[in-house]
Amino acid sequence: MLVATLMPATARASVFGSIIAALTGNGSSRSGYAQRASGNLQALHLPTPAMNLNPSPATGGGGVVIVDGSALLPSEGPSGTIADIAKPKNGTISTYVVQTGDTVSEIAELFGVPVSTILWANDISRATQLRVGQKLTILPIPGIIYTVKKGDTLSSIAKRYDGSEEEILSYNGLSETSLAVGTDIIIPNGEMPATVAKSSSGKKTSVSSGSAHDVGPRGDASEVAYYISPLSRYTKTQGIHGYNSVDLAAPSGTPIVASATGDVVVAKDGGWNGGYGSYVVVGHGNGSQTLYSHMSKVNVYGGQHVVQGQVIGYVGATGLATGSHLHFEIRNGIRNPF
After folding, report:
1. Under a CB-based contact definition with an 8 Å cutoff, are residues 163 and 144 in contact?
2. pLDDT (tens digit, 9 = 90+) per residue, 184-217?
3. In order of start, what are the domains of the chain with their CATH numbers?
4. Does residue 142 contact residue 216 with C-beta atoms inside 8 Å?
5. Using an 8 Å Cβ cutoff, are 168 and 179 in contact?
6. Cα 172 to the chain's mean position, in Å?
7. Which has more confidence, 338 or 175?
C-alpha cells in the first residue's frame, strides 16, 4: 500500500484495473476501467449518498424502535423513552419502569394523575431520587375532591367524609395549619355523606352533599359469577366503599386465594403503600383487576400467573387497618359481589 501511494495516478489506475480484471476474470474490464478513469482516480463512479436526513433509517421510527435488527418495541413514556407501562383504564392499577431522565411530574402527566398519587402510592417524597429500572405503582386513588371552607379543620373534614387525617395530610402534602380557604384537597377513599330531604311528593329521600364530588367509579352487577370468594370464611365488616371494595374480617394468617385466574400486576410485601400495606393486584382475562390488601404476608411475585383458588397471601392488618381483615376490591366496572 505504501508503494501504491507513491505511484503516479495513472500507474495506480493501471495496477488497480489489473487487480479488478484478475478478480472478475474479465480481461476487457482493464481497458474499460482505464478508459473510464481517464488517467485520474477522481473519475471513478462513487456510491450515491443517502438523500434523506437520516442515513441509517432502519432504526424503527414512527414510535417503534428496532432491537438487534428484528425485535420491535414501542417507544412510549416521557421524552420518548421506552416504557414498560400499562396505562390506566377504568380505574385499573398500572406499573411503570423508570427510564433515564424521568421525573415524577413527567410520569404523573403521562398517566394523567396528580404527582401526589405517585408519591403516596410508592412511599416516596418529592426529594426522592428516582432510579433507572425502579418500578412505580400507578394507583388511581378514589375519593372526594373537597374545597376548604372557613372554619374547616382537618379533623372535621375527615370525620364528615369518612376519611383518615393521616391519609389526607400525606396525599395532599399538607400540614393542618396549611388548610387555606378555597384550596381543593383530595380525601382518599372518602365517602359522600347522605342527608335527608323531601321530594316533590313530600316523601323523604336520601341525597348527597354538594360540597364535594366523588372521583372513584362504581361497578355494575355483571359477570359476578366470574369470581369466587377470596376467603373460605369471613365476616363482612363493611360493604361497598372506596373503590368498589368490601372489608372481610378473618383471623390473622387466614389464607387468601385468587378470586379468579390471571397474572399478578403488583405484589408488595411491606410498606405503607397508600394505606394498603402489603397487597397484591391480579389482572384477569375479562379486563378487570382484583386487589387484596392489609396482608400479613405476600405469597406471590409480580408477573406470576395464578389460577383461581390459589393462595396468594395471608390475612393481616398492615397499612391503614384497625384490625385483622382483607380489603378486597374489584376494579374496572364490575360490581363487587361480596
Report:
1. yes
2. 888 877 766 654 434 444 544 433 444 554 444 4
3. 2-43 (no CATH), 72-138 (3.10.350.10), 143-214 (3.10.350.10), 224-331 (2.70.70.10)
4. yes
5. no
6. 21
7. 338
